[in-house]
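Protocol step 4 of 5: obtain the predicted structure for the target chain.
Materials: sequence only (see below). No template structures provided, no constraints applied. The aim of this step is simply to have a reference model before the mutagenesis design in step 5. Sequence pasted as it appears in the construct record:
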Amino acid sequence: MRFEDIVEGARRKAGCADPDSDSWREGLDILVHDHNRQGRLTERGLANTQGRYETILAARMQVDDYLRRNPAILDTPVKAPVFILGLPRTGTTMLSYMLDADPANRSMLRWEAYSPAPPAAPGALKTDPRCLAEMAKDEMIQKAAPHVAAAHFEPGDGPTECVHLVAQDFRSLMLAVTTTVPSYHDWLLFTDMATAFEHRKRVLQILQTTNPGRWILKMPSDALFIRQIFRTFPDAKVIWTHRDPFAAVGSSFGMRGGSRPMFEVDEGRDYMRQYFPLQLALHAARPLELSHERPDDIYHLYYDDMVADPIAQARRIHDWLGFEWTHAGEMGMRGWLTDNPQNKRGKHSYSLGEWGLSKEELMPYFSDYLREHPVARKEALV
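Step 4 output (structure tokens):
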């Protein structure tokens, strides 16, 4: 893999000038170095990964090009966005889809994350040709990897994570967990995320010009960078989802282990066991620290409560945010829940034991968190 080939490929795909800033270069350079040193990508994985990086960089080029031609967009505020975060596998997806079913709310859709510029025409979020093209891929994705879809699936016209936006600055946990990139993984945990979040803000400014609404944004790994949320969006509010961390770790390992062989020679169990526990622990530790400093800006949502009565929890969230609870919003949420029962695409089975992990081994990573949020179940997750 060559850095220069990725840049040239992105230029061909974008058909416009390079980004205005070089902030994306550092992360991409580390990724390329890691891939070449590790040598774990299959022939197909190498082609897919390089193509992925080209597409990500091309999207960045197109965003910057669009803003060069429409600079007034940068003067428009992103008002009081709401961020859903927490450990992976703690109900963030369910919550984001439920809140998106309220017509007053605005999520970033999966197709928009891949191709944010230019924005969709007013009212055309789900009829834009780019949206229809992504939706056409959905059936193929489900057939090619049904076990991955059972663990986590996002349709092309549904809400997605902002990992795709920060990836356009090559600062995204998505890029650290799908392949074996140890230097990049550790760099990401401690790098300055300011440029990635500023790019994220610029994309939201573009998208809201034609299809505005109350931004409800989901990215579990925002938990790692929670301080940067408030630096970039001072009037933000955060919904922090809580679940037994041992269940979350087991489910996360299972999901990642199911998708990694799509790119690499195997699951990369040694990499996952060595690098993922600390990263997942920081998903709990960093919000825990900030929650003591900004208690009024963080809402605590417990997974068991949401599963038991999702509508009641959504209503409490609306009250906390000062949003009006409407009949249209409630009917939209109830309709989504009816159409999307748990395990709709198959049951996602997981355990700690299959990864050589145990609650006892992981307990030190989550001890502070569990003292304040005692959500761990007593039964062993074997």
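Step 4 remarks: The domain at 3-372 is CATH 3.40.50.300 (Rossmann fold). DSSP finds 18 helices and five strands in the chain.
Proceed to step 5.
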